[in-house]
């Protein structure tokens, strides 16, 4: 279910395998967060070009991209917006499986350490350059080598790419059947190599082979797009224009939807009831969001297993759901939602809420009530942090919330002792697991620690083809091995919550993705 993470109060998260939504008012630096700035009106100027001559999607986004170079933006939540412009080798269907996009098919060699993607013939980028294996090779190499790439850590299984016309032969460092899942919209959105030769220009003038092309871009504020007739599946794209704007304050989004300034937007759970009362369609797009409390077991007091377990038993997950998602989210003690292939029922509720047990463990560790004092470091004011503070106070742990706007630097350097993190997961379950529990995982505050047996369990998943009948069992075993980690306490999953005008048809329920294929707009915009 990751990306790249984006720390966020209450629901969002940072870079890597996914990422949950970023704070509406807080920007994190570099490729770790989406820049949120006041939006221009969706009407006026070139923004309305074409309105009246065809259907126009008016989308208010809380994840308006700070960067339009997909290598820099990484696989954070804004990959959904970048997917308007960029296509990938694969994309994700409603079951979470990889299906063809720019690649019409693919196959592995017998050993499983090489995969060949066969590209669709006759495709071009919006600048007229051919979509071929050379473009795939350039995209992979740029993602691995560009200095400000947010994707290099995702591509460690790829050794090299050979370009043979329309066949991209990907040589792997290990047997890895996860590659079709990996190289989808999150991790390898492919730009024109010609345009990408000047990454700083591509960043504000995106050139892809996706369903739309950019006609106007105001950095951080607004982008106007039109349907791309050269897109391989253009006949099933029924929206003619897109006006994407950075969402204003959450309280004004619903009124904008009601009055027609927008016809599509992500909304806060606190706005859902008002949106429904306004006659809007409110829905949850499936996803892999998961929030957690991050512990560094290389630092006291979490180098004591009893303290770690005391924190685990002190957490009441229902309170997060009730107060932060207004009941629209779900409790979770794993990085995957219930019902997903990687979710391990055998590990469910291993550490139930039990304040009495928490106090007992702290006493065994030598701490009386009030003895243990912790600093919880977060990037911005965060009601999630306040809930953690309150719950730990009930078992005798005093928590002081410290705000560090440069939180990302010490977090990814593993210098913090106690923090919060949220992600949107990844399409590759293995990526989600290694990001959370692997020795180099960006979500693992206790790096280079990893649970015993985890590395072997993940290797077994990589060696197992996705269509192997034994794959679900092998994958759940890897999840179980990862959950032995003492570095993470999962709390809740915030919903991917959206509201739309009834004139906009339903979107395909593809986990974590926004897919515009087949979507229609009826009546007046």
UniProtKB/TrEMBL annotation:
<feature type="region of interest" description="Disordered">
    <location>
        <begin position="1"/>
        <end position="22"/>
    </location>
</feature>
<dbReference type="GO" id="GO:0015833">
    <property type="term" value="P:peptide transport"/>
</dbReference>
<feature type="compositionally biased region" description="Low complexity">
    <location>
        <begin position="9"/>
        <end position="22"/>
    </location>
</feature>
<dbReference type="InterPro" id="IPR000914">
    <property type="entry name" value="SBP_5_dom"/>
</dbReference>
<feature type="signal peptide">
    <location>
        <begin position="1"/>
        <end position="42"/>
    </location>
</feature>
<dbReference type="Pfam" id="PF00496">
    <property type="entry name" value="SBP_bac_5"/>
</dbReference>
<dbReference type="InterPro" id="IPR039424">
    <property type="entry name" value="SBP_5"/>
</dbReference>
<keyword id="KW-0732">Signal</keyword>
<protein>
    <submittedName>
        <fullName>Peptide ABC transporter permease</fullName>
    </submittedName>
</protein>
<dbReference type="GO" id="GO:1904680">
    <property type="term" value="F:peptide transmembrane transporter activity"/>
</dbReference>
<feature type="domain" description="Solute-binding protein family 5">
    <location>
        <begin position="98"/>
        <end position="421"/>
    </location>
</feature>
């Amino acid at each position: 279910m990751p990306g790249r993470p984006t720390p966020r109060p209450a629901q969002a998260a940072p870079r890597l395998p996914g990422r949950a939504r970023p704070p509406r008012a807080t920007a994190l630096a570099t490729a770790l967060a989406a820049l949120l700035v006041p939006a221009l009106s969706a009407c006026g100027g070139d923004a309305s070009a074409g309105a009246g001559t065809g259907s126009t999607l008016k989308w208010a986004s809380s994840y308006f991209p700070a960067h339009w170079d997909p290598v820099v933006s990484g696989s954070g939540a804004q990959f959904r917006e970048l997917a308007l412009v960029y296509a990938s080798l694969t994309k994700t269907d409603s079951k979470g499986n990889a299906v063809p996009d720019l690649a019409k098919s693919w196959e592995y060699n017998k050993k499983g350490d090489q995969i060949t993607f066969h590209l669709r013939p006759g495709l071009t980028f919006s600048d007229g350059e051919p979509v071929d294996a050379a473009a795939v090779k350039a995209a992979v190499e740029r993602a691995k080598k560009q200095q400000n790439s947010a994707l290099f850590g995702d591509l460690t299984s790829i050794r090299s790419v050979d370009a043979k016309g329309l066949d991209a032969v990907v040589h792997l460092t290990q047997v890895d059947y996860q590659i079709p899942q990996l190289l989808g919209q999150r991790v390898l959105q492919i730009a024109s190599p010609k345009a990408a030769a000047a990454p700083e220009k591509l960043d504000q003038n995106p050139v892809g082979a996706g369903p739309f092309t950019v006609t106007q871009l105001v950095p951080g504020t607004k982008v106007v797009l039109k349907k791309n007739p050269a897109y391989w599946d253009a006949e099933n794209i029924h929206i003619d224009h897109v006006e994407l704007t950075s969402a204003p304050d959450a309280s004004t989004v619903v009124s904008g939807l009601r009055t027609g300034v927008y016809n599509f937007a992500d909304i806060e759970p606190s706005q859902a009831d008002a949106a429904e009362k306004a006659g809007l369609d409110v829905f949850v797009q499936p996803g892999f969001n998961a929030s957690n409390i991050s512990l560094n077991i290389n630092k006291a007091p979490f180098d004591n297993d009893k303290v770690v377990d005391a924190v685990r038993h002190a957490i009441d997950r229902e309170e997060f759901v009730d107060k932060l998602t207004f009941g629209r989210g779900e409790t979770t003690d794993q990085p995957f939602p219930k019902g997903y292939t990687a979710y391990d029922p055998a590990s469910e509720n291993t550490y139930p809420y039990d304040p009495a047990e928490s106090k007992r463990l702290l006493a065994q560790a030598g701490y009386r009530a009030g003895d243990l004092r912790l600093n919880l470091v977060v990037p911005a004011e965060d009601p999630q942090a306040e809930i953690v503070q309150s719950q730990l106070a009930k078992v005798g742990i005093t928590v002081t919330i410290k705000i560090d706007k440069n939180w990302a630097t010490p977090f990814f350097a593993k210098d913090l002792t106690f923090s919060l993190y949220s992600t949107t997961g990844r399409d590759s379950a293995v990526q989600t697991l290694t990001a959370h529990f692997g020795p180099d995982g960006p979500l693992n505050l206790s790096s280079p620690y990893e649970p015993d047996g985890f590395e072997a369990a993940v290797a077994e998943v990589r060696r197992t083809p996705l269509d192997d009948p034994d794959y679900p069992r092998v994958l759940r075993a890897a999840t179980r091995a990862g959950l032995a980690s003492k570095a993470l306490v999962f709390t809740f999953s915030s919903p991917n919550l959206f509201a739309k005008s009834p004139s906009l048809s339903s979107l395909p329920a593809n986990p974590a993705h926004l897919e515009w294929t087949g979507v229609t707009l009826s009546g007046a915009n």
